């Protein structure tokens, strides 16, 4: 299994990041082995009846990286390219992310290999309910708490809540986060990840001595994270000049009105043909001059081919693993790009998920202002810790963020010991 995981490009990238950081921390081989590999890798089949009467079997996955510090936390994605290796890598990154943010969670990730854009609401509900029922032995508010991710949303979480609660015989709101507010979801959860990306990007601009009102931004991806990152950046005074999604890319050096893009996407299903900007090749958009570049789509989009061409001052990694290890080396050698690494940059989602989980345990609701204020306080603290570690140790921001997270997990592993 180790060889199979390492052969997957995304897990291999996550493992190389871990190994590099473990070398810096001088982790002993026994602790390194225990921290690196996931605790559980779960694969299930999900047979459903399609609307046309055919029966189709999908494959679903859940990887629980570690439960040493608490229940695992992480999203569930529906996407045609979901694979076990990808899910394992994402669960590893989530583990370091939770530890970096000092949240009492381990890392988890789940996925179903399907194309939600080609499925009806009924078919999506059937996939969700069957996936949840297959996962019942492995999930729970103190074991594994899922959340929305690519291709899933609060409705998905509502269906999961219903399946688990029906099985338990009473409402169990803490089984997932990212639920609708009327099912004891949290105010501010929908905007949390994108809001956090924008907040940290503006702190990075301040470090680079660039005023927000003079800054420009390009956002790759206009899903939940990218759309709210773009919207919040614009509200902070940053001019958004480029946006892309699965349908295409748009660019206007004079600025794009993000609120109008929301309306256009709602009406047309994507940013393509938006009247307030010109069409541009999505790959070309990434290398246009800007102050903030926000990759908010899939993994491995900043590569050794385009890294030398980047013209941004801040690279805010809203997606998980958007920068390959080869591109990382190029960016470090360049030394002119301030990196906000993914496990810090997109930590707003899991942080507000933690707030939602706590509210569910307490049966108490916070206002959106309370949630976002608490979020910004925690993100600012983590940002400052990463900067302090990077400056003190003379390492990159990525190594600093990973080191803080990995060390926390490693210390707990050593303290708890190894069960014979």
Overview in brief:
By secondary structure, this protein is α/β, with parallel strands linked by helices.
Feature tags:
Rossmann fold; 15 helices; globular; alpha/beta; 48% helix; 420 residues; five-stranded mixed β-sheet
Model description:
The chain has 15 helices and twelve strands. With 420 residues, it is α/β, with parallel strands linked by helices. Among the domains are: 135 residues, 3-Layer(aba) Sandwich (Rossmann fold), CATH 3.40.50; 151 residues, NAD(P)-binding Rossmann-like Domain (Rossmann fold, 3-Layer(aba) Sandwich), CATH 3.40.50.720. Strands 9-8-7-6-10-11-12 form a seven-stranded mixed sheet. Strands 1-2-4-3-5 form a five-stranded mixed sheet. Helix 8 links the parallel strand 6 and strand 7. Helix 14 packs across helix 15. The longest helix has 26 residues. This is Glutamate dehydrogenase.
Question: CATH superfamily name of the domain at 190-340?
Answer: NAD(P)-binding Rossmann-like Domain
- Which consecutive residue ranges, at least 5 long each, have pLDDT under 50? none
| Element-level helix/strand string | HHHEEEHEHEHHEHEEHEHEEHEHHHH
Structural class: alpha/beta
Name the shape in a single word.
globular
Round the mean pLDDT to the nearest integer and report it: 95
Share of helix, binned: 40-55%
Radius of gyration of CA atoms, rounded to a whole number: 21 Å
Order of strands, widest sheet? 9-8-7-6-10-11-12
Domain Glutamate/phenylalanine/leucine/valine/L-tryptophan dehydrogenase C-terminal: 186-417
Protein name: Glutamate dehydrogenase
Organism: Rubritalea halochordaticola
Family: Belongs to the Glu/Leu/Phe/Val dehydrogenases family.
């Amino acid at each position: 299994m180790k060889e199979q995981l390492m052969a997957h490009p995304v897990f291999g990238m996550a493992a190389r990041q871990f190994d590099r950081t473990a070398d810096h921390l001088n982790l002993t081989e026994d602790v390194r082995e225990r921290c690196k590999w996931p605790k559980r890798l779960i694969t299930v089949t999900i047979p459903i009846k399609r609307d046309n009467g055919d029966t189709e079997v999908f494959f679903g996955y859940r990887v629980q990286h570690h439960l040493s510090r608490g229940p695992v936390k992480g999203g569930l994605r529906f996407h045609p390219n979901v694979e076990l290796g990808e899910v394992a890598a994402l669960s590893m990154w989530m583990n370091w992310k939770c530890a970096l943010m000092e949240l009492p969670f381990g890392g988890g990730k789940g996925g179903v290999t399907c194309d939600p854009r080609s499925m009806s609401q009924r078919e999506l509900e059937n996939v969700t309910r069957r996936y949840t029922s297959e996962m019942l032995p492995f999930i729970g508010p103190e074991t594994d708490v899922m959340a929305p991710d690519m291709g899933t949303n609060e409705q998905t979480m509502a269906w999961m809540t219903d399946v688990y609660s029906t099985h338990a015989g009473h409402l169990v709101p803490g089984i997932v986060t990212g639920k609708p507010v009327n099912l004891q979801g949290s105010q501010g959860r929908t905007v949390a990840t994108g809001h956090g990306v924008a907040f940290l990007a503006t702190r990075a601009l301040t470090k680079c001595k660039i005023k927000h009102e003079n800054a420009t931004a390009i956002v790759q991806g206009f899903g939940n994270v990218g759309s709210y990152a773009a919207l919040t950046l614009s509200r902070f005074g940053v001019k958004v000049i480029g946006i892309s999604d699965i349908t295409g890319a748009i660019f206007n050096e004079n600025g794009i009105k993000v609120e109008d893009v929301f309306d256009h996407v709602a009406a047309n299903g994507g940013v393509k043909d938006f009247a307030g900007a010109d069409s541009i090749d999505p790959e070309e958009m990434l290398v246009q001059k800007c102050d903030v570049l926000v990759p908010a789509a899939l993994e491995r989009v900043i590569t050794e081919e385009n890294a030398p061409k980047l013209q941004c001052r801040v690279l805010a990694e809203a997606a998980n693993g958007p920068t390959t290890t080869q591109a990382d080396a190029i960016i470090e050698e360049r030394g002119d790009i301030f990196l906000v690494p993914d496990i810090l940059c997109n930590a707003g989602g899991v942080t507000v998920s933690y707030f939602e989980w706590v509210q569910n345990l307490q049966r108490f609701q916070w206002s959106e202002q309370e949630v976002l204020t608490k979020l910004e306080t925690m993100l600012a603290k983590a940002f400052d810790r990463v900067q302090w570690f990077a400056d003190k140790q003379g390492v990159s921001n990525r190594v600093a963020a990973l080191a803080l997270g990995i060390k926390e997990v490693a210390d707990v592993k050593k303290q708890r010991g190894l069960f014979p």
